[in-house]
Amino acid sequence: MTVGFVGLGRMGGNMCRNVIAKSGEDVMVYDLSPEAVEACAAVGGRAATSLGELVAAADVILTSLPKPENVEAVVLGPEGIAERAKPGTVYIDLTTSSPELARRLAAQLEEKGIEMLDAPVSGGPVGAEAGTLGVMVGGKEEVLEANRKLLETLGANVIHVGPIGSGLIAKLVNNLLGIASVATASEGLMIARAAGVEPRKLDAVIRASTGDSLAYRALADKAISGDYSAAFALDLAYKDIHLLLELADELSMPAPMGASTHNLMRMAKGLGYGELDPTVVVRVYEQTQGLRITEVAEVES
Questions:
Q1: Which one of 162, 194, 222 terminates a domain?
Q2: Which of 116, 166, 259, 279 could form a disulfide with 161 if both were Cys (CB 3.0 to 4.6 A apart)?
Q3: CATH number of the domain that 283 lies in?
Q4: How confident is the model at residue 230 (pLDDT cuts 50, 70, 90)?
Q5: Over 90: is that where the pLDDT of 231 sits?
Q6: What is the β-pairing status of strands 134-138 and 121-122?
Q7: Are 181 and 157 in the same domain?
């Protein structure tokens, strides 16, 4: 069959190259960046001249896009999936997007004979390159099973969560847990720093104690080294928490942890850190208190 892949950025490009390498299918690729298209064409992808050409030719369409509005444009915009895809096409969105949007798009596409799955992924660009992502799927189980082997080119852990939108709900909750943990770890490190505890010694204690977690380690490694270069930018993490809060509002559900984390991220964005790693939220504490974790770690290490 022909698989179309739209969106070849840090995540999408790595995922697409795994689809090309492992699926054995004809993979057409499209992105606004010619360089991104060439990187996938160089390993066996077939470059589409336009979105419309890809959509019309594909039996299955995968998208990996930055924001919900990009997803909506590819589905409902000129030469998009609703306009050009043939009946029987399956659309799988890998973007971390809005559950409400996924439900709305799926309903519109179903009227045209097109099935949709929301299938956001977890594991970052490293997992995307290695093909070890977790894939959380919302939609009809029979549609997932018909396309499971394709999704397993991205990672072996492909889980059906429930009806359309459910994969996105799971992803947004996962991201809340991770980013709120980073915010809490930032607060803890800075309290200890203000009280005079050396960061590397505190880090050794926490890694051997109940406060340890993947999120804590990510924060501590970045804060102690002072290197906040991003594989996944704060701007995108902020978008994800914003979507989580929209979901909570839709459900009339209190979300104080999400709200406080979102506000901390907003402050970090206001300081100009949007393109850096989400762990850069610790710089909000450093700048408001006039203290640095990195400098102490360098002096006393």
A1: 162
A2: 166
A3: 1.10.1040.10
A4: confident
A5: no
A6: antiparallel
A7: no
In this structure, the answer to whether residues 223 and 102 fall within a common structural domain is: no
CB 189 within 8 A of CB 293: yes
158 & 174 share domain: no
Is it the case that residue 179 has pLDDT exceeding 70? yes
The active-site residue, picked from 22, 67, 171, 239, is 171
Query: Which among 87, 89, 33, 43 is positioned nearest to 64, based on CA atoms?
Result: 33
The whole-number pLDDT of residue 295 equals 82
User: Which candidate, 192, 126, 181, 132, places its Cα nearest to that of 156?
Assistant: 132
CATH code: domain of residue 128: 3.40.50.720
Q: Quick one: 98 and 131 in the same domain?
A: yes
Can you give the pTM of this predicted structure?
0.93
Do the Cβ atoms of 192 and 199 come closer than 8 Å?
Answer: yes
| pLDDT classification of 150: cutoffs 50, 70, 90 | very high
Are 40 and 16 a contacting pair, CB within 8 Å? yes
Q: What are phi and psi of 2, to 5 degrees?
A: -100, 125
Q: Is 67 a catalytic residue?
A: no
- For the chain, percent of residues with pLDDT exceeding 90: 95
pLDDT tens sequence across 53-65: 999 999 999 999 9
24-37 pLDDT, tens per residue? Answer: 999 999 999 999 99
Provide the number of structural domains found in the chain.
2
**Which of 146, 162, 178 represents a domain boundary (last residue)?**
162
As a 3-state breakdown, the chain gives helix, strand, coil percent values, each rounded to 5, of 60, 10, 30
Note whether 255 and 286 are same-domain residues: yes
